[in-house]
Structure formats: structure tokens, C-alpha cells
Amino acid sequence: MASDCFEFAPDSFTGAIVAIEGIQNAAVLLNGPTGCKFYHGALSENQMPRANSLDPLYYSEAFYFGQPRVPVTFLDDYDYVFGATDKLEKILPVVADKGHGLIAVINSPGAALIGDDLLRFIKNADLAVPCIAIENTGFSQPLAWGFQQAVIAVLETIVPLQEPKKNKGSINLIGLSIFHHHWQGNVAEITTLLGACGIRVNACICAGCNLSDLEGLARAEVNVVVHGEYAQDLVPFMAQRFGMESLVPPMGAPVGFEATTSWIMTVCERLDVNSAPALGLIQGARQKSHAALNRFNALTGLPKGATFAVDADASLALPLVTWLYKYLGMVPVCVRVGHGVPELEQKIKTLLDEIHCTGVWQADLTQGAPDVVFGSGAVVVRHRLTGRPFTGIELSLPTSGYHHVIPKAYMGCQGALYLVERIINGLAGCL
């Protein structure tokens, strides 16, 4: 998330929660006040639904407060003075009886200051369910940092160290989370393209996987990074603990035709498989895109020459800015990224220098009057306050509240076509 939007940016506390809640049969037990529970409970269920019913009466028992996810010890002022012993002793068996395969007890930032020994509580509870404790999620660290630390804690607990037999032609996807907008559609699109080449996704680490997927992650030939910000610590950890190589495609996430082609070819070359079937799918999508763009351009002259702003992680910003400029002929007026992957940030700056747009790097979004704004829902909504006509495309959470029913993607063939559709319809609406 870019620096001028830090007031909206979730931190490492949220990152740790979504890492655990991104595992189908794992659960977060939050040691903190109720104020820390409701947003994260709703976020987890909205991004990866697991409950069969949303009737709050089904979850009216203590600690759940009408939500199926993220039960909480509901600490009050007394607990902050005298500790949360009684509540932790009561809540652990309740959560363990829900049938989860793993429970992660996570301190809220305030609870981390109390000094309760979570490991002692877990040991004394003597539960049949494996439990881990995350006592400090990193005060105000980026979301990606907290996500990775939680993933590491899970893998250290449940993944055996022995060297399993490798499944040829299989990979793990790392650097995706349920916090990413349209993460399910992105996983499905990547899986389809890889599957066309005979490559199987062994596990998508902490993004819709289950514990058995994680337990067998070392069977994959290689890890492939999607978002570098969410894999920087995981890559060396996987190498040191499991002896696994991690492949980091040079153009960032597979967004747009060029980056998707590069991403697929990089993976196929590493696994020594033929990339032609996936490249054929990409070419088919290019033809659909070309036809739609030709019709729109004949009527309006757009999108060539339209301006855009991007506020996103570097792993998403690099392929997006490259594609918008080189493929669609659009002009950047603002490109903002947070601190995450210096190599990708430098590539963005180099591109902007080459096209004589150096001044748009980390520029003020409100000064450029972009025709299309790519960013979180909060960024898009805030830019509407300028009163200028533009179209907003939400790349990340928090969203503006639009309810998506049909699965969507930003990555791969379908992602590129979806973005083209959004761009040309958005520009048409601003004419």
C-alpha cells in the first residue's frame, strides 16, 4: 500500500490473522478486545466463506459474538491489569471443540503488552488439537510481514523435516493471501494456465489451502512467487528449512499479457515443460482484447492517451504500469508503491525514466487528474472527493463495499480481459 494511504493500510496484526484464516481447517483465537475481532471476523468470512449459515444465533455462544470466525477473549480494563488467565482457560476448549485441525492463539497489539504466557496456557490446556502462539505480530509492521511470520510459525509446527519424494511437474504458489482482492479468481486463472502445460499446483500456501496441503508442500519441485512482498522472508526460510528452491519471475505478478507470458515461460523453463498450450490461451485472449479495443478506439480514440494512476504493491504496479503504457497506450500521471521489493521498484522507476515520466513516481494522486485510478477501495473513494470525473478500479482491500457474485481475476488471460472491460467501460462513462 502506498505511503500516502497509510491511514487506510492494514498492518502486520491483520496479516497474521489472514495467514491463519487462509487455511481451510485452521482458526485464529484472538486474545484481545472485541474491537479487534469484528472487522477481522467479517473480513475472513467474506474473503473465504466457510460457514453454512450466516444466522448470528448459530454463533451466539460466548467468545464468538454472532460471527463464525475469529473468536475472542474480549479483554476489558480488568484483564489489562490482572491478566487474561481466566478467559484464556475458558476459551481454549471451546474453540478446540469446533473441529479445527490447528488453532493459532494471537495477541492483539494491546494484549501483547500484558505479558500473558500463551505457550503456558496452551500446554496446560492439554488439547488434542495442535496449537501455536503468536505473542507479538509486530507493532505497525506491514501486513506482508505479519503474514509471513505467521506462515513460518505454522510451517515450523506442522511440516515434517524429512525429505519427501518430489512430484515432477508440481509447484507451490507463495505470496498470495486471502487479503488480496479476487484472490480465488487469480488462483483459478494461474492454475488453469499452468495446468494447460501439465503443471500441477501442489499447494497455494495459506491462500485457500488445507493443513494436509501444507504438510506435503516439500513434495513440490519448486516454489513460485506471485507477490514478492509476501514472500521475501518465506523464500530464505523455505530454502533453509526444506531445501526448496523458490522461483521469482522478473516482472512481478502475472498481470497483463506481457507479464503473464513472461511468468508462464519462466515457470515452464524451470520445469522443462512446453509452454505452448498456455501461450495459445494467452494469444486467444489477446485476440479478444484486440477486437474490443479496436471497436472502442474507432468510436472514441481511447484508451490511447488516457491518463492513469496506480497505487499498489510493486509486484502488482510493475506489470500493470508496463501493460497500461505499452499495450494500451495510456499515460501515467501517478505511480505510488509502498516499501517492499526494491528490485521491482527500481524497474518501475527505470520504465518511468525511459518514457520521460520521472516526476510521476510517488506523486500526489490529486494533482494528476487521472482518467483511471487503480488502487484500494479507500484510495478510489477518497479520490472521488476531488469531484473530478474518473473511473476507479479497486485492486486491493479495503473495498468500497461492492458485492462480487461472479468470480473475477486480475491475473492471467481472464484478468487482462476483465481489466480491459473495466477500462473501456469506465472511460466511456466519463465521456
Automatic annotation (TrEMBL):
Name this protein carries in UniProt: NifD1
CDD domains: Oxidoreductase_nitrogenase (cd00316)
Domain (Nitrogenase/oxidoreductase component): residue spans on this chain: 13-427
InterPro entries: Nase/OxRdtase_comp1, NifE-like
GO molecular function: oxidoreductase activity
Domain of life: Bacteria
